[in-house]
Each structure stands twice: as C-alpha cells, then as structure tokens.
Design a protein that fits this description.
39% of the residues lie in helices and 19% in strands. The chain contains twelve helices and ten strands. The strands form two sheets. The protein has a five-stranded mixed beta sheet with strand order 2-1-3-10-4, sandwiched between helices. Strand 6 (130-133), helix 6 (138-149) and strand 7 (158-161) form a beta-alpha-beta unit.
Length: 308
C-alpha cells in the first residue's frame, strides 16, 4: 500500500513539474523605441513570472527578421502592418497579438527630415524635390498619408529608394538628399546636426507597429497568448508608473544617440489592443493599390481570435 502511495505521489509531483514548464518564445525584434516594453518585460522578469521563457532575438534589419520568420526560426516578431501582411500572405502562420505603437500627438515615431540646405523650406517649396525612403513599405504608406494630410497629391515628392536608414541619414546630412523619411531617434538627431523637420506622422491616428505570434500560441483557449499579454501589460504599466527608471535601458537597447540620451522623451506605450477593422482595411487597400497584395487578408486570418 505504501509503495502504491509513493508511486502516486511521484506521479502527481512529476505532473506538477510538467505543468510548470515555461512556454518558450523566440521573438524577433529590431533595436527601436517601439520594443522597449518587451525589453522591460525581460529585464524585470515579468515574462518569467507569467510562465513565459522569452528570448528576444535582435536583427540588424527588417529583411533579416522577416527571413528568419519565414524560415520558422522565430515564434513571434515585432514589425509594421505592411510587413506583417506580406508575411501572412506568403503563408507564414502567425497572427497579430497586439498593437505595440500607434501614432500619438506629441510623440513622433516617424517624420520627414530636411537636409541642412533645405531646412527652412516649407511643404510647397519641397514639391518635386527628393524624398529618401524605403519603397513598398510602411514608410511609403506613411509618406502618402502625410502628403494627404498636408493637402497634396501622391506626386509631391520625387521618391528615391534608399533602404538602409543609416545611409539615408548620411546622404541627408551631406545634402545628397533634399529630405528623408526617418524614424526616431534619428529624426531628432537630424535636427540636432543642423537639419530641419517638415512633418511627422504623430497626427495620423494609425497603428504603426504590432507584435505577432505563431498560430500555435492561440491554441488551447489561447492560454500561452494570455500569459504573453499579462506580462506585456505589466511592462507597459511599469513604464507608465516610473518611466525614468528605464531611461538607461532605452538608451542601450533602442540605440538612442549619446547627445540625445538625457532629454529624449519616454514614450507613453499603449496598453494591449488590436487594430480596428477599418484601420486594417486602410493598410490593405493601400497595399492592393501598390501591387503588394492581390487580395485582402481576412481579419479572421490575421488577428488574434480573442481580445488582449
């Protein structure tokens, strides 16, 4: 009888250990401001607290990140909606888990920077001049949106494809480009080094970047997804409550240039939510018009089946 009881105790103990096994997630990121809540979640062991073994894998470029996602080397990734729809359309089994950043007045994430030679020109005077960006990407989507917001058609600038952002910034500051679409903190750095700023995306009211997870994390009543969301919420709340505590982490992981470190703003990251159907349709309509998609991806395919 004692032997049977001992065996039962062992079985129950073993099953308890198995249930406590953390969910491993290999998550692809870029060294950008939008990913700070993920960094906080790892540093403060919030993912670990909620049963997630989060491995953040940093890539030097979006192309490298997307290639890893296509090859099945990642379980999730940070990216923009244009890149996300391209991956889903190519058969990558993933869903949008949450919006990591949406345009927020007072906190520009992207903007059109002017070269030192053109820093005092207004929008009308920039007609026909070069705008460096990455075509067929979220940057071109934002450029079109900003042109509309400023009351011009999509032919206002002469678009010049320069995929690598550091090269784009260098060409801007040496007056080889009239203007360039840049993310923060490079937008601020361009101003600091003598350039100008024509417009930003902060008033557009669109979801800019998202976090995505492999389809498998939405199985079994989306238990793994729920753990991921719980940890992420805590990270965002900590950034809201004590933002300055994470300034050094932001400088280190988001590549804030040294001259900007002390005063660069701590961004108010949104609590987890999903993009709306209207917002998703706008992005896909643009992608279809640009020939990036032949047809729209249904929301039932692209979105988490439950709200975060």
């Amino acid at each position: 009888m004692r032997k049977i009881l001992a065996i039962m105790v062992f079985i129950f103990a073993f099953s308890g250990i198995a249930q406590a096994e953390p969910v491993h997630i290999r998550f692809g990121i870029l060294p950008v401001i939008d990913t700070l809540p993920l960094q906080v979640g790892v540093q403060d062991r919030l993912f670990e607290k909620h049963g997630i073994d989060m491995e953040l894998i940093q890539f030097a470029s979006a192309l490298e990140r997307d290639t890893a996602m296509q090859a099945g080397q990642l379980d999730g990734y940070f990216g923009d909606l244009v890149a996300t729809y391209l991956l889903i359309n190519q058969g990558v089994p993933m869903r949008i888990a949450l919006t990591s950043w949406r345009t927020t007045p007072g906190f520009p994430m992207f903007g059109i920077a002017l070269s030192p030679a053109n820093k005092d020109l207004d929008f009308a005077a920039m007609k026909g001049r070069t705008l460096g960006l990455s075509k067929s990407s979220v940057m071109e989507f934002l450029a079109d949106k900003m042109e509309q917001q400023l009351g011009a058609d999509s032919r206002h600038f002469s678009l010049l494809e320069i995929k690598k952002i550091p090269i784009r910034l260098q060409m801007l500051m040496t007056n080889q480009l009239d203007s360039a679409l840049l993310p923060e903190p490079l937008l601020s750095l361009a101003r600091l080094k003598g350039g100008g700023q024509l417009a930003t995306a902060e008033q557009l009211n669109v979801p800019l970047t998202v976090l995505c997870l492999h389809d498998s994390y939405f199985a079994d009543n989306a238990e793994s997804y729920g753990k991921f969301i719980a940890a992420y919420k805590e990270a965002v709340q900590r950034l809201h409550d004590t933002p300055e505590k994470y300034r050094s982490l932001m400088a280190q992981t988001c590549r804030i240039p040294k001259p900007l470190m002390a005063e660069f703003p701590m961004y108010p990251y949104p609590m987890p939510s999903l993009p709306s159907a209207v917002e998703l349709d706008e992005v896909q309509t643009w992608m279809v018009a640009k020939g990036l998609l032949t047809s729209k991806v249904p929301d039932e395919t692209a979105l988490s089946p439950i709200l975060p």
